[in-house]
Amino acid sequence: MSTKGTQLDSDKHLLVFSSYEEYLDSLVTPLDLNYLRNTETARKIAELGYKSAGETLSQEDFHQRREKVKDLLFPVWRPFTLHSELSTSRDPVITELSLRERSNRLGILSTIIFVRATPSPGLEVSGFIDFAHRLRRENWRPFFEGRRKLRLGRSDMSFYNWKTKRLSLNETDNYEPVIEERKGILWKSLGDLKLLDLDPSKPPGPDSFRMTVHSMDYQQVVLYDHLLRCRN
User: Fold this and answer.
1) pLDDT category, 200, cuts 50, 70, 90?
2) Which DSSP state fits 120?
3) pTM of the model
4) What would the pLDDT profile of 81-100 be if each residue is shown by its tens digit?
5) Is pLDDT larger for residue 187 or for residue 20?
6) CA-based Rg of the chain, rounded to a whole angstrom?
7) Angle at 82 between CA 10 and CA 13, to 5 degrees
8) Which of 26, 103, 111, 193 is least crowded, fewest Cβ atoms below 10 Å from its Cβ?
9) Which UniProt keywords are listed (predicted)?
């Protein structure tokens, strides 16, 4: 892999920060805040490089390198027609999945969608969707046009009915469930055999990052992006 590819690979964690301030906050410890009593002062010290054993990015470098990773994973230019191409919806979930459709179809990125929703009164369900797996099997145009919501089914990676307390687990084109005694259910990527931990209280694993998406149409949506390969 080239030096450029290596840097892009190491910079993908920058996507978890929506702003430079969030990036600086990740370098500040609770002890720092307790001692300094001021968030802005703590951020300034972090920006100067005193709180990081490695490289601390300037604001300009942060935005430039974050945009390069974003362009790689979620390119705007598309050489072929996509289900999301003509979408004008402003729903955050539709917007984020539109950015990911091409990369998932090309096998650059593998996105897992966690959804918790109430599709009908008295029925609450949650589960994980293998986005690329479903893209190959369904017409997503009604979803991207805002005419249909995300729908969970018992054939998805996981499906949980909160009323009956029943859980279904399934292997998909890209993932298989792995049950560990201490960690519980993990998911092994069949592309690179790396394990993903979808527990929201833990890091998702190597080459993976998590994003929470807020939408009025769902109780909760979380996207897990697993980088399969970089283009040099």
Assistant:
1) confident
2) E
3) 0.66
4) 566 766 768 899 999 999 99
5) 187
6) 19
7) 15
8) 193
9) Cytoplasm, Nucleus
> Which phi and psi (to 5°) does residue 87 adopt?
-70, 135
The length of the chain, given as a count of residues: 232
Query: Contact, 36 vs 42, CB < 8 A?
Result: yes
* Token digits of residue 221: 């949506």
Q: Over the stretch 161-175, which tens digit does the pLDDT of each residue have?
A: 999 999 999 999 999
Burial 44-83 (b: 16+ CB within 10 A, else e): ebbbeeebeeeebbeeeebeebbeebbebbbeeeeeeebb
* 3-state secondary structure at position 41: helix
DSSP assignment of 131-192: HHHHHTTS--HHHHTTSS-----TTSSEEEETTTTEEEE---SSEEEEEETTTEEEEEETTT
What one-character-per-residue DSSP string does 49-79 give?
A: TTT-SS----HHHHHHHHHHHHHHHS-S--S
